[in-house]
Amino acid sequence: MAQKNPVRQQPSDSASKTETANPETHDENMASLRRFLVVSLGNPGEYRDTYHSAGHMVLESFQKKLPEALGQPSFASERYGKKAVRASAGAKYTLLQSPTLMNITGPWLARAYKDFMVDQGLSPEEVGLVLVHDDLEEELGVVKVRQWKASHRGHNGIKSVLASLPPMPDAKWARVSIGIGRPDDRDRTTVSDFVLSKVPWQAKGILQDKGGSGLWEALSKLETKWNK
């Protein structure tokens, strides 16, 4: 049963080293990338507009910044992973905002990912799965590509996803982190209160501007890497 309380970010004792995705050995027989499934993490309901849901804000901004020629539709309620999800399904990008509480995202995402491949008739080599999430250890609006199995840094949503999606041969998976900064005090209560606080309009503008453009650049880099 889903928890009734919102999931709180666990503070880390010190900032971790930045981890970026590194090119992997390429198999000449590997299928080319055909679609992106981009999923943002966040909490629903009253906690949707908090720092912990920065991934949702950035994904919406990304959709609006895409060229009109791509025909990316606006977000609407659709069914993915047996749940109603805010989704924008275009020819190249399928954008999903996780509908669950942060710490139980994994099981839903695993099902949505597998159902998506079956429905589209695609293999893991042909679908680029990208997880978009908030990051306390980066300055507000800083976007970085990270390896799928990079440190979760105490992020409960990432913990859940990594536990539910074990390594799959030839799968194209990556994470894109969105910096939200962090309070000066690093005690558990202060950090938890911060990530569950409403994002001020000035900060939201930075997330939408820098985050949306940064996600576009990140996906472009991943597309180049995965199609080598």
**Average pLDDT for all residues:** 87
| General shape | globular
The helix content, as a percent range, equals 25-40%
Strand count: 7
* Helix-strand string: EHEEEHEEHEHH
- Strand portion, in percent? 15-25%
Low-confidence stretches: 1-5, 7-29
Structure annotation, total helices:
5
Instruction: State the end-to-end distance.
Output: 43 Å
Major sheet = 7 strands, mixed
Please state how the strands of the largest beta sheet are arranged side by side. 2-3-4-1-5-7-6
Question: Compute the gyration radius: what is it?
Answer: 17 Å
Structural features, described:
With 228 residues, the chain is of the alpha/beta class. It contains 5 helices and 7 strands; from the N terminus they run βαβββαββαβαα. It has helices at 54-65, 105-120, 156-164, 188-195, 201-226; strands at residues 35-40, 76-80, 83-89, 93-97, 127-135, 143-146, 172-179. The protein has a 7-stranded mixed β-sheet with strand order 2-3-4-1-5-7-6. A hairpin with a 2-residue loop joins strand 2 (76-80) and strand 3 (83-89). Helix 1 (54-65) crosses helix 5 (201-226) and helix 2 (105-120) crosses helix 3 (156-164). The longest helix has 26 residues, at 201-226. 39% of the residues are buried.
